[in-house]
Amino acid sequence: MKYIEREGYLDWLSKWKDRHIIKVVTGVRRCGKSTLFKIFQDKLRASGIDDEQIIALNFEDIELEALTDYKELYKYIKSRSVAGKKSYVFLDEIQHVGSYEKAVDSLFLDAGYDIYLTGSNGY
Fold first, then answer.
1. pLDDT classification of 34: cutoffs 50, 70, 90
2. What is the pLDDT at residue 29?
3. I need a surface site. Which of 13, 67, 75, 76 has the fewest CB within 10 A?
4. Which residues make Cβ contacts (< 8 Å) with residue 43, sequence separation at least 6?
5. What distance separates the 2 farthest-apart alpha carbons in the chain?
6. What does the alpha-carbon distance between residue 74 and residue 19 come to, in Å, rounded to a whole number?
7. CA distances from 80 to 12, 21, 54, 67, 85 (A)
8. d(CA 25, CA 46)
């Protein structure tokens, strides 16, 4: 599938990549937030980031329902992390995870994570 490259948004994500700040993309439902993340993940891979370093979860997927508990989410992300390498964590539609802030804040304490979030502002 061919995507429309949203250069302004991609440049913004690139500018903040690897900076110790949580990147948040918000917007109305179906405006392209998830697609933007997919394109950015492809750019990370093209720049030499290994697939194992990218942890991408979309909480609209019912298969991830077990991870909507913030403690389970935290444990899952920690288990997927590769020692000695930065992990790029993409949490799409994070508002579906109860108390997600606790998991995200705890991950943020570790400089080994570059964190990206989306949430629909309809919630």
1. confident
2. 66
3. 75
4. 10, 14
5. 38
6. 21
7. 26, 21, 9, 13, 11
8. 22
